[in-house]
Amino acid sequence: MTPVLSVRDLSVRFRMRGGRHIAAVSAVSFDLAAGECLALVGESGCGKSVLASALLGLLPGNAQTAGTAVLDGIDLLAADERTLTRTVRGRRIGLVPQSPAAHLTPVRTVRAQLEETVRELTATPRADIRKAAVAAAERASFPRALLDHYPHQLSGGQAQRAATALALIGDAPLLLADEPTTGLDRDLVDRTADELRRHADDGRALLMITHDLAAAERIADRVAVMYAGRIVELTGAARFFGAPGPRHPYARGLLAALPERDFTPIPGLPPELGALPPGCAFAPRCDRVSGACGSVPRLVDGVACHHVGGGGGAGAGGVDAVGDGRVDSPSRARSRARSGAGAGAQTTEEGARA
Amino acid sequence: MLELDAITAGYEPRTPVFRGASLSVAPGEAVGLLGPSGCGKSTLARVAALLHRPDAGRVVVDGEEVRGWRHRAPRHLRTAIGVVFQQPRMSADPRLRLRDLIAEPLRATGRRDEATDRVAELARTVGLTDDLLGRRPHEVSDGQLQRACLARALVLRPRWLVCDEMTAMLDASTTAALVAAVETYRDDHGAGLLAVGHDRVLLERWCDRTAQWADCVEQQPGA
């Protein structure tokens, strides 16, 4: 099956004052198919949200990107603002935001916002817009009785549904949910997650960015664990949360930290993205560190660790396997050429776009 | 004892958020208060932290009934209770470096000469590096900022700790690290804890006992 979204060697670096660089995302590759939910998990500050911004073309001006992210034949990283505005945001990617209360316009009712979005994104005749807005609310289980309420009159869960209704209007093949469950209580997390899953089951691809492992376990087909800007493990959700469990030491530590498991933190702090150690970024916190960790491990067979499985030798650019035997897209060859040698993380000047 | 006795509180006099909430925490005890969002448990936590004057009811801290709230609370009571809130960004002065953020309660109580030693000690407890202590809130992650907010709550060595959804914004590892820091402090100082939240698994693992919100209140208008 052709993936809906195909990301190859995506890197994002921020140029800072004094010539410093922050490597927020490094050499990230994954595919996402229709009807599939991929959960991208990791600690705050690991680059998850930057990845989402990159896909939406919403990075600030000092960001440089490399690699490709192909959705529906469009390379999101190379597309100009006009293409992004007119064909991508809302139409090919629906965004379920982190804090729906802040995402909704405070001075307009939910109905007004739904109708505006229907008008902008679809070719609905004027006479039918009202009906289409009601139908959109229904799709996201937003109660009809609350359509004329303003955002501040809604509870957290209701606002979440209103935002989801807006995200679904453009009938986008890709739903991007950025921390959709932060700050919600457990019942609401479960309901929100289940609703997102239902939209994936309707044939959309769902990329859920979250630090909530319980929400990920509930709905994800596959899990990608991100650490210091890199995907360190990409595997099936059943394998990850059940047996045999995660293979990367960081992923294992993250899961073991859950209160229903060992409840022990991973020692130390995540590294600064502006001052990453050479080699494996997790090495300073890892109990299996050895001489081999001085080089960046490649993601081989779904895990990037020198001590696990065939955990890769360093040096080669690009990613040899995306973890689950998916067929490489032609864009990969290009992106590999562009990202050059070394650890695959270097954003070369010719590949960089301001 | 930290006793909350028949507390009625809210933000509009005629429509309190809840009525008659009672809960007590014994010295050195860790109590988890579980409730759904919007039930008023955070308001009760604010009352317990002397940050919100209840409409009715009594708060008794170590045998002394509380008469003043917020800045009118007597200093010896105010400093006996440390508070950590859910959202570190909204509870941190954006102008202060983490070092100063942690030391602020010492300055406010005229003990600034202790600051250097105490901040260094607490930075170790909560796992902050020297580099991070020199940064301002916008230069650190939520998890790092919450570590600083916890250190700030501990800096005056309170006998009581109130943690209102302290870890709701955080990932699993940071959650475990902050809970471990709280527990280390409680082991050393015998402090009591009121942890408010909605995560049953977390609070049952963390606390000596948990209380359901519904069992603590008399009646809940509009519920």
Automatic annotation (TrEMBL), chain B:
This entry's Gene Ontology molecular function terms read:
ATP binding
PROSITE patterns per UniProt: ABC_TRANSPORTER_2
Organism's domain of life? Bacteria
Q: Tell me the ranges covered by the ABC transporter domain, including all copies.
A: 2-223
Note one Pfam family from the annotation.
ABC_tran
Q: Write out the coiled-coil annotation as residue ranges.
A: none
Work out whether the entry's keyword set contains Transport.
yes
List the keywords (alphabetical).
ATP-binding, Nucleotide-binding, Transport
PANTHER family for this protein: D,D-DIPEPTIDE TRANSPORT ATP-BINDING PROTEIN DDPF-RELATED, TRANSPORT ATP-BINDING PROTEIN
The Swiss-Prot or TrEMBL record describes its family as follows: Belongs to the ABC transporter superfamily.
Recorded protein name is ATP-binding cassette domain-containing protein
Q: Which organism is it from?
A: Streptomyces ficellus
